[in-house]
Design goal:
heterodimer; B: Rossmann fold; 26% strand
Chain lengths: 288, 320
Amino acid sequence: MEALPLAIAPLALVDERAELRSELRTVGMVWERELIRFERTRTRILSSFVQPVLFLFVLGYGMSTLVPTVGGFDFKKFVFPGIVAMTVVTTAIFSAISIVWDREFGFLREMLVAPVSRAALVVGKCLGGASIATVQGTIMLALAPLIGVHLTVATVFEVMGCELLMAVTLTAFGVAVASRIQRMEGFQVVMQLLLFPMLFLSGALFPLKGLPTWLTVITRINPLTYAVDPLRHFVFAVQAMTPAARAKFPVGVSLFGYTLPVGAEIGIVVALAVAFLGLALTGFGQTE
Amino acid sequence: MKVSSLSKRFGEVQAVRDISFSVGTGEVFAFLGPNGAGKTTTIKMLCTLAEPTSGTATVAGFDVRHQPKSVRRHIGLVFQETTLDDQLTAEENLRFHAVLYHVPPEQVASRIDQVLRLVALEDRRRDLVSTFSGGMARRLEIARGMLHTPAVLFLDEPTIGLDPQTRSLMWEDVLRMRQEAGVTIFLTTHYMDEAEYAERIAIIDHGVIVALDTPDALKRRVGEDTVELTTADNAMAEKRLAEVGYNVRRSEEAVVVFTGNGESQVARLIETAGVPVSNVHVHRPTLDDVFLHYTGREIRENHGEQAISSRMRARFARRR
């Protein structure tokens, strides 16, 4: 009798390991599918650059005439990290649209009836969308020399880290919304309604300083604020800026008169990512 | 597969009422009935996609209620609607499925080769599914359903919206798989000629199984065969046949004999008639007659419409 538990334990262990391995395989496969599909839609790759490039040049050059250049640092340089963030956010959120497609064309069913956990599917989906968004954001960095933004190798890696975190959070957010929406049009409407206010009020396009109180409150509630700032922080850290320029184009988000360290901002985004993943998971479970 | 007293209720509506049956290993078993009869609901319960209100069912030796994951691992599913990703190639669709159904990595490639060969799609493996015809897509789905060597393959209205030629091609595939893999096949259909492929048929109507037997036995229960003889002297033939006790009638140009097992009687009938016979026609009751007999309705009612709409859906899906 005493030998029995000993005999069962290793068996259960092997079983659990095999289970975990097949879950990871599922995550990998779902991720791969997202990438294959993305790579096949060339028009989507191109069109996802049109908007940020447009913003960069129209807004960057347009506003440069209004916002004076301080110590050689102009508005274009300020807005550049924000535009990179914008690329990542838009791509990430809209990658979740594939769930709505999958539902409409039945493939969601193929996934949901498989003997795998919903978590593996959701994580695979989120990582897939996030990878694509990170790649897109990183390609945008190629425009840096054109704008006069200086980048080091270390900065590029820091920025990519920020992009990935931001992308996972926003893809999870997108999946959470998409899995609760039945129709294509619905997703697009909801996303346009949420995405633009969130982007505009995140500090991506203008400094979050000296705003009216009500606007300040909104920007501090906006989760994107905490995702955009670290990215700008890492880019600005390697720019040659005069103290006057730093005062004019500040980084950092102040909360109740206290400026949050970058670590805290990243912590907030990680917490949000976990929360959105949770919402994505429960939403995904309800789809059938 | 064993099902006992399975029921499903959606609010006030009793979709499936207390059905019981069992299906042997390697058997082809058909659920035949009109739309809304409870076929899809039953299949969903057996595939663990819907929870039974009461009753039990085991599939491939696993309880659908308590071991849903084990059930799903051991069954293949082909739904009414296409569930392929048409932006992926045939091979990629299969690889995706193989991973989700835990096919060991070292076996994936050989399994994909095998199932593609089964449905004769090897030369299209690297093509996007969006370039496939409806029939090819359906056959690919069947191949996919077989990829993880399931014990039971469920086909829910597998040939809906397919042309007759594609349908028979698909059936060749399915029966070949049954032969090679020994898989049990459970299908639902409202096509009579399709149910003929099954070894046993359960006729379901309003959530109840009204008859369950082999196609031949069902037909026999409904009525006898009719043998039509065109002879040189119909009156003489009729008289002689009636004399030995056959149930005979005369139509305009022929003598019609009602008898069980008509085919084996033909030689005796011709001999008994004793006049030159120019034409013999044996008509067996069809499953249409069987269905009509058990439900009092024609099964074809309202079906044209649905077939078209599902085909249109498939076409819209292609257009993406």
